[in-house]
Please model this.
Amino acid sequence: MAEAHQAVGFQFTVTPDGINFHLSREVLKHIYLSGVTSWRKRAIQFKNGILTGVYPASPSSWLFVVIAIMSSIYARLDPSLGMIDSIRKMLPVSDYLTSQSQTVLSAILFATGLWWSLILLLRFTLKVLLSYHGWIFEPHGKMSSSTRLWMVVLVKMFSGRRPLLYSFQASLPRLPVPSIDDTICRYLESVRPLLDYDQYKNMEIVANEFKKDQAPRLQKYLWLKSWWASNYVSDWWEEYIYLRGRSPIMVNSNFYTMDLLYMIPTHRQAARAGNVVHALLQYRRKLERGEHIPMRALGVVPMCSSQYERMFNTARIPGIETDCVQHMRNRKHLVVYHRGRFFKLWLYYGGRHLLPSELEQQFQCILSDTSEPQPGELKLASLTAGNRVPWAKARQKYFSEGVNKTSLDAIETAAFFLTLDDEAHGYDPDRAESMDLYAKSLLHGKCFDRWFDKSFTLVVYKNGKIGVNAEHSWADAPIIGHMWEDILATDYFRLGYTEEGHCKGDINKGLAPPSRLQWDIPKACQEVIEHSYLIAKDLADDVDFHGCVFEEFGKGLIKKCRTSPDAFIQLALQLAHYRDKGEFCLTYEASMTRMFREGRTETVRSCTIESTAFVQAMEDTQRLALFRKAAEKHQNMYRLAMTGAGIDRHLFCLYIVSKLLDIESPFLNQVLSEPWRLSTSQTPQQQLNLVDIQKFPKYVGAGGGFGPVADDGYGVSYIIVGENLITFHVSSKYSYDSLCLQDSHRFGQNIRQAMLDIRELFSLKEKTERKKYIS
Model:
């Protein structure tokens, strides 16, 4: 009971002589250290808030301006053109404020106003400079002199030095609203290869009627919103695409990220969890202070960082009509799930983070605990995996008071959720299905051993492999990817393990063990839990996954072919899908719009006239020329999407406005109902400086994936790692495979063959050119 005694700061006893107090020095020491840590954190946040608030200037520049103004006054010059004298006349008369003091104070106030005006001017200038996107449309490796001047001189000059994570937020331009004519023209072009002549002509008529009658009014409201709100898309996108969905978020919305492909630094589950959780706490501390380096395209153009704010201490809260995202601050505990039990673990000791060895000790206590789950506790998390309305009603009825509310609050306010899984997973080249099982485990697990509403669930398997299941409404995959790259590098290269596989450091016997969360779940609630579990299990069993590790060639060889790696892969996907289904389909590729304030994603419609022409001409002698034309088209569409000139977010917002105004639009109804039967996304590598892949070739990420967007379609995620590796994650559903028309494994093999066939085009060209040279 040592921990119970330490939990009491003081005790007292009543005697005939009075009251005797007995203070616990150990507890008072921890209280003092916690207070010091808290005030230090506030001081750092305050300092960084000032640095961010005045960026791209610095606080010291204020002193420089004040000294310059004061020096000019003493030199009997008036740079304010009489404004200092006007300010002095407005100051109150006082015995303590002499005429000279009034002049000095007036000069300081004028200098401060001038300094702040210069900051606003710098920000406006930087915003104008960042609104230029001509650089992104220039051929790779061929930068014009005007772009070089813009990038090297102007942007770098106005970007300041040593920016913090949120330094550029006030300088980012707003997402522009495309013109109706451009959007409809691009939309019609995108559906042309998918429709026959009569269908296309009918669509043209509907689109032109919309452009003439309804679109101008809807567009005006979008223009108004674009000037009033920070971003005219993001809030509606979060609400209507994610939070208002009433179907399960497991599989349908959440996504996963895997561990390194080849490496496991330790097979001790508790040790791996200790290092990774400590690395996450270090990352969170820098995030709370805003000390992470902001991401910048080409090392110059800043990306929006707003999505990072809700990474930790965040949960999606179910509602009857719509969910909401709850974000808390300064939460110091973690909730751990193991074999049907929930544990609460404090992450701080004596005002500091628990060390990796201390965390390993705590996790080992949980793994060694032999207690049984309480009634209803085993599958409780399946409430977050099923339909949203039953979960919202159960939360209101059974979790609004007592121990259930206390325990649920502990989960929803925790830094994140951790599952100590009792299975072993990971990539094994000798087991063909190893990647498939690993992916399914991360995406849905057993349907009751991940808390799908948390911003992310960290999964640590019994063999030491790890992964993440992430909720999608609060942020997109690159945000989780940024965190995950940092965590893996910290785990492997900074923290490390002993020769026995334990975390480095000593054991702390003074730590209180993790505590069990208590539940009082009645039979009626247990029935709701079981119903949610059965729905989630049917959904999980219906998902087919295939992980394809493509090692034949990678980015290095593709670049030698003088084409974009992403365009190369997207055209391979078009070829693979055509061979798989015998037809083309509406294809979604996610592109980011984070060059704009609060930007998230835009759609690249990868199935184009040019790509279909290439696929159909694979037996034609002109196929290489068609490939290059299709690749250039894809790159151009990707660039348009990145620069705010995409199609789908504009049409989506027009649709929302039409619903708010109760305007019925056949065109928008048809556009928004079209299924994405091929949904694709590239997992970007963002921090290449963390790991030298040339030196450590086995330390490569495996990427992540998601479930199929359409029930009769495929979901494909891929990551391009280093120069010689591409990993594909393919998903589909068994329920639409009664005629063997859909199979993730077959589609994965089609992708592999399509990649090789396109590579052969360039090999044939090289051979032809070599023969010409020899002759």
Observations:
- Residues 24 and 492 are 40 Å apart (CA to CA).
